[in-house]
Amino acid sequence: TLQSVADVWATTNLDVVAFKDRGHFILRDTEQLFQLLEDNQVTFATMKASQYVRAFDTEVDIWERTLSQITEVVETILVVQRQWM
């Protein structure tokens, strides 16, 4: 499943669109992105609960941190957009 998660994120694109033709861009339609983040975080939490995770523990930790950072960055972008728009 580590490879399947990596494959999904390698092809995931953010929905960024022009805002009012002023040279600014906004992030929209983040529902699928947050669903993907949540699903993958649950996947890694399940892996961590397994007794067989030791062989992949470092990779799982890296993915957990990466997904957490993505979540934090996207949430921050959305807060800034709400205040700016």
Largest sheet: 2 strands, antiparallel
Count of β-strands:
2
Instruction: Give the percentage of residues in beta strands.
Output: 5-15%
Order of helices and strands: HEEHH
Helix tally equals: 3
Alpha carbon gap, first and last residue: 39 Å
Which structural class do the helices and strands define? mainly alpha
Main attributes?
mainly alpha; two-stranded antiparallel sheet; 85 residues; elongated
Task: Please summarize what this structure is.
Helices cover 66% and strands 9% of the residues. The protein is built from 3 helices and 2 strands, in the order H-E-E-H-H. A hairpin with a 4-residue loop joins strand 1 and strand 2.
SSE blueprint and pairings:
Layout (H helix, E strand, L loop, with lengths): L1 H9 L5 E4 L4 E4 L3 H19 L7 H28 L1
Antiparallel strand pairs: 1-2
Helix pairs in contact: 2-3
Explained architecture:
The chain is 66% helix and 9% strand. With 85 residues, it is mainly α. Strand 1 and strand 2 form a beta hairpin. Helix 2 runs antiparallel to helix 3. It starts with a helix and ends with a helix.
